[in-house]
Amino acid sequence: MDALRVTYRLRVESAQATARAEAVALEQTVEVPRSVVRDPFVEEQILGRVEEVVPEAGGSHLATIAYPAATTAFDPAQLVNVIFGNSSLHDDVECVDVELPPSILSALEGPRFGLPGLRKAVGVYDRPLTCTAVKPMGLDPAALADLCGSFARAGIDVIKDDHGLADHSFCPFEERVQACLAAVERVAEETGHRAVYVPNLTGTPETIGRQLRFAEDRGARAVLVAPMLVGLPAFWELCHRKASVPVIAHPAFGGAQRIAPELLFGRLFRLYGADAVIYVHFGGRFSYDRAVCRRLADRLVGSWAGILPSLPVPAGGMAVESAAEVVDFYGLESMLLIGGSLQLHRNDLAKRSRGFVEAVRRAAERLGSD
After folding, report:
1. Is the pLDDT at 7 greater than 70, yes or no?
2. Residue 9, phi-psi category: left (phi > 0), alpha (psi -120 to 50), beta (remainder)
């Protein structure tokens, strides 16, 4: 049977674990009691099947359930529905892993540009990329463009909108994009360093499509989207049917579901087309630990049935002073995103930005010489 296999963590007593797994298998496919399933085709070709239930330390259980690939209709929305639709409403169930067959991988395709495409856009191939965000929300387009210029002049590779920047009355999308693109182009003419400015696209699918066309027409070489805010199917369509530039995925709203971060950000975001994936690094203002970050990054860059790798982008309260340690942890195939730390001391923005760039370069050189 051509099947996808989904692993769930069930927080139930041992005596209930197998029955709970069977209930999830029914819920995620036929959504009726087992006794109602009488049609041979439904029983053999549609019904989910529990393959394994294994106890974990702490009293929970890991249940692996096989679902026929045909139940997904090879559709971006239906795939998520089969993986964790109704069962996401059960507070004793967490989705922790997915194994996908070639038929589904081929249908969803993964990134169009991936890690190689991001490197090509930036023109850097031998070290981790550097990235920052223009913020805070509330600044007008001219002020954000000034920040873009300062960051570009310091040598930062990628300068993205903060994900909180939308089409605000105090900072309209089109004015912001034009001003920031112009700022990085001026620096490129002056210094030869052409940073990539990445506008944030957000809103309804129609709005996002309009913003994408505007940004691309004016020379944007990548865009930023939060897949969980706009919806994974809309994100897939944007990546595969609309965008002609790499798409960087932001993790906002990604913690609202009981889905393991290494699965959501490391596997599904890559599958749905993210060329780079921002996620929170341990030691910042979020709660992921080293093991989760390691597994997440490995899933983004690891070999996966011909699917292009996505660029890992650790972020989330990282300090300039920790840049070298982050490079040591992730290696060369990464992009470090440091935002607020660059602006801690108003008069030292340029110095701290240059220090960030140099710290990453020195750490990369040290790794290359080991």
Report:
1. yes
2. beta
Count of beta carbons in the 10 Å neighbourhood of residue 199: 26
pLDDT value for 370: 66
Task: Output the CA–CA distances (angstroms, integers) from residue 85 to 29, 96, 274, 303, 344, in the order listed.
Answer: 10, 14, 22, 28, 42
User: CA dist 316 to 50, 216, 279, Å?
Assistant: 38, 28, 7
- The two three-digit tokens of residue 37, written as one number: 């399933």
- Name 192's Cβ contacts closer than 8 Å, sequence gap at least 6: none
Residue 131's beta-bridge partner residues?
158, 337
Residue by residue, DSSP assigns 234-265 as: HHHHIIIII-SS-EEEP-TTTTSSSB-HHHII
Q: What is the pLDDT of residues 37-77, one digit of tens each?
A: 999 999 999 999 999 999 999 999 999 999 999 999 999 99
Token representation of residue 344 = 């801690």
DSSP 74: T
Cis peptide bond prior to 136, omega within 30° of 0: yes
As given in the structure block, the two tokens for residue 230 are: 């706009």
pLDDT, tens only, 210-233: 999 999 999 999 999 999 999 999
Which DSSP string do the residues of 265-300 spell out, in sequence order?
IIIIHHHTT-SEEEEEPTTSSS---HHHHHHHHHHH
Q: Average pLDDT for residues 272-277, to the nearest whole number?
A: 98
CB of 338 closer than 8 Å to CB of 318: yes
Q: Which of 80, 220, 98 shows the shortest CA–CA distance to 148? A: 220
For residue 25, give both structure tokens.
């298998």
